[in-house]
């Protein structure tokens, strides 16, 4: 097609596509009983992108093609993440029932949230869980990576074996370990299940999380360790460095970026812990609170508390307010962690 044909056809397709999409959206919002809305929307989008592709501008044509290919991903991300986030923040200031809201209540949901001792305990126990798991998961994963890169026979088998628990869904994993703690290991714990008492139940959740996630972190550390130049390790050996000195003065500084990635992944994953927590203990356990009475959510972490508030108690507005706070906490902690890790990388 020559330049003149593109100049004529491109705006026609663009205008026709936009008009068809607008008509389809108007029919949808007006509640018109017709089956043409979906086909009109799809055909309009196709016409729009074809017209955009034929747009007779050589200077920006490559950028237009890139945009066309990126649009499905960007649109999906906006629909599933950005728009729900904005709507969720708005709903947290209303009496939203999950379907509609009748009035704006301001900061009433946030005030009620901070007055709830069960929620405060969930926040505290989540931070404790995250701190312990950031250390233990990375430590276990790094040690497993060292083992698998040490030249030990059957290294491929060990890598697959350590990674296998990560392939099991959290709900299934929780019920499997619930059976293990309540039936298999009960003789080693004085005939008392570990998940029947709050302190040991939290320890049990940590054990299961490490068992599930350490293999995944191990693979990332293996990638970092295998990328260390062999001549650097050989030079350290010639200089008389012991294996321990080589580990702390050569290997660890050279995989600083890998450590940053693994720390970030364990941080965000531990904060969002939900499925194992629900399947293993369902958040139960009695703990004394600062008001003198007892809380029944001794092992309920933040994600499970939000779920129970919105779904079990049918209080979607309060649950959404907790979710917004959860997002803010996770964003702030993640940014601080990445900034500190990057600073440490420069120092190393």
Task: Write up what this structure looks like.
- It contains 14 helices and two strands, in the order ααααααααααααββαα.
- It has 348 residues and is mainly α.
- The protein has two domains: 3-110, no CATH class; 114-347, MetI-like (MetI-like fold), CATH 1.10.3720.10.
- Strands 1-2 form a two-stranded antiparallel ribbon.
- A hairpin with a 5-residue loop joins strand 1 and strand 2.
- Helix 11 packs antiparallel against helix 14 (316-347).
- The chain is globular, with a radius of gyration of 27 Å.
- The relative contact order is 0.10.
Gist of the model:
The chain is mainly α and 348 residues long.
Provide a count of the helices: 14
Question: What count of domains describes the coordinates?
Answer: 2
Coarse structural class:
mainly alpha
Going across the major beta sheet, what is the strand order?
1-2
Q: How big a fraction of the residues is strand?
A: under 5%
Share of residues in helices: over 70%
Unreliably modeled segments: none
The helix/strand order is HHHHHHHHHHHHEEHH
CATH topology of the largest domain: MetI-like fold
Mean pLDDT across all amino acids: 83
- Classified in CATH, the superfamily of the largest domain is MetI-like
The total beta strand count reads 2
**Name of the CATH first level of the largest domain:** Mainly Alpha
List keywords for this structure.
single chain, 348 residues, mainly alpha, MetI-like fold, 2 domains
List the helices and strands and how they pair.
Blueprint: H1 3-30, H2 37-53, H3 61-91, H4 108-114, H5 117-148, H6 155-163, H7 170-184, H8 198-226, H9 230-238, H10 243-254, H11 256-271, H12 275-280, E1 287-288, E2 294-295, H13 302-312, H14 316-347
Antiparallel strand pairs: 1-2
Helix pairs in contact: 1-2, 3-14, 4-14, 5-6, 5-8, 5-11, 6-8, 8-11, 9-10, 11-14, 13-14
